[in-house]
Request: fold
Amino acid sequence: MTTRVDAFIRPGGDTNHLLQTVSALKMLGIDWTSQLDLPRDFSPDLIHHFNLNRPDQALEILKQFKKAPLVISSIFVDYSEIDQISNRLRIRLLTKVLSSSRMEWMKEIARSVMKQRSWPPKEYLIKGHANSVQQLLNRADLLLVASQTEAERIFRIYGVQQLRTEICLPPVHLTYFSSSFIQREVDVVLCVARFEPLKNQLQLIKALNNTRFKLKLIGDSAPNHLNYFKECKEVANSNIEFYSFQSEKELFKEYASASVHILPSLFETTGLSTLEAMACGCPAVVGGGEEVKEIFGDRVEYINPKRINSIIPAIERALLRKKNQKAWVYKKAHPEVIASRLVELYQKVLSE
Reply:
């Protein structure tokens, strides 16, 4: 399993995706190792990379294991729209003259200069972001995506012509399928997400300030967005509560007791916390977008994440929902379901 080098230092959704996948595969007896802990004389049957936005570490590993088949879980985020509306003037100006891939390349350099991450491999710096992603895709035997829309976006951005893809949602932790009964609280809105402009918590806070709703925000600040986190806290009124990242057991209680879960992101491929909430029987509201609409259909309520006045009506609609979607999530994202599917796909790749 390979991913960005700081995935366990600065965990995010891709970290959780990898860890839940590993946990699910262990139930079927699949052995794995990470790029951070390679045994001497190691020879993998297969390499599975998580997070297409971070190709640098995978390319380094692939140079060591040139014959090993490669599967990629894309977990793809298109940051171009977010950069265009950034509250940082220099970011908005750069988007007018640079492509999204060039922006990602420059961000990697900036993070290294600021000592937030180690320097990317020399090959990545020379090739640039787009060429590195293209090289990874050209090397891949299989691309796992959350939706066909996501695959089409990737192919369009990186000019990929032919690559086998399969739709495979991230596995949801077993805890969230617990049958424990918890009384739902009235008008409690929950949002579980790391604090960053992409997740759009600031608009959510402004929408729910001084309303009858109690908003619980669970998550830590992304390292590069401490000012955004600070602004969220400064804007929030007394009906808004902030909590640090919690364990699965603690989160289950929050999902199971909340009236509604909302993830108002400007862009999502899946939104793992939405699946977790639905697994606990909690009605869900999500930011609009072709990817999430293909995945969730009419099972959730949608907002326009750029329109603050779309938030409360969507929450009100979610409160009126009678049928929960726990059975649907069980069918699509239960860890045993995902593990069995992955083993089947691994075997196909290895047999070719």
Remarks:
- The beta strands are 47-50, 70-73, 142-145, 165-167, 188-192, 214-218, 240-243, 260-263, 284-287, 301-303.
- The first helix runs from residue 13 to 26.
- The chain has a mean pLDDT of 88.
- The two ends are 20 Å apart (CA to CA).
